[in-house]
């Protein structure tokens, strides 16, 4: 299962990096706040998968609680930084009344992102449960957020196409997802920071 976790993490890094580049391109070309939010979340997914790679790179440390909590603390910090950037960008787009443009490129990236990130989330949740790894489950949560954001780009674009008065849906979803990531990051830090020192002393004693 450790090797499966490593393979899933490598696959996640390659896929989400490609999706991040595509989503950044969409956000610049089509002025989409949720596409920018997804691109940022995809980069966060790359980083969180890299942390999971570090977590399971040492076979002898598979059951190391200290290593697990360090990984969770780093993930928590990345979540906070990412959420702030997503919320600031979405609020800026709402305040300047930035209207999203809709085309086939945006549609393709949205559908592909939603499907791939959802599949990655399921794989990470299953492996995280087997390995009892909060870091892997957190990585799965991040992929799930990416999947939701992928479909939300499509939803807000379709709504705007049929009703131009609901132009604010795109930015609102960006704010909501940014706040969700922020809340999860805070909870992760509150739960794991105190345990880093405890487990270090305990494992050194062992």
From TrEMBL:
Database matches in InterPro entries: Cation_efflux_TMD_sf (IPR027469), Tmem163 (IPR026765)
Predominant location: membrane
Keywords: Cytoplasmic vesicle, Endosome, Membrane, Synapse, Transmembrane, Transmembrane helix, Zinc
Location(s) in or outside the cell: Cytoplasmic vesicle, Secretory vesicle, Synaptic vesicle membrane; Early endosome membrane; Late endosome membrane
Membrane-crossing residue ranges in chain numbering: 7-29, 35-57, 69-91, 106-127, 139-160, 166-190
Membrane topology: Multi-pass membrane protein
Gene3D superfamilies, per the entry: Cation efflux protein transmembrane domain
Coiled-coil ranges per UniProt: none
Cellular component terms per the entry's GO annotation: early endosome membrane; late endosome membrane; synaptic vesicle membrane
Catalytic activity: Zn(2+)(in) = Zn(2+)(out)
PANTHER family named among the record's database cross-references: TRANSMEMBRANE PROTEIN 163
Family: Belongs to the TMEM163 family.
Record function comment: Zinc ion transporter that mediates zinc efflux and plays a crucial role in intracellular zinc homeostasis. Binds the divalent cations Zn(2+), Ni(2+), and to a minor extent Cu(2+). Is a functional modulator of P2X purinoceptors, including P2RX1, P2RX3, P2RX4 and P2RX7. Plays a role in central nervous system development and is required for myelination, and survival and proliferation of oligodendrocytes.
Protein name: Transmembrane protein 163
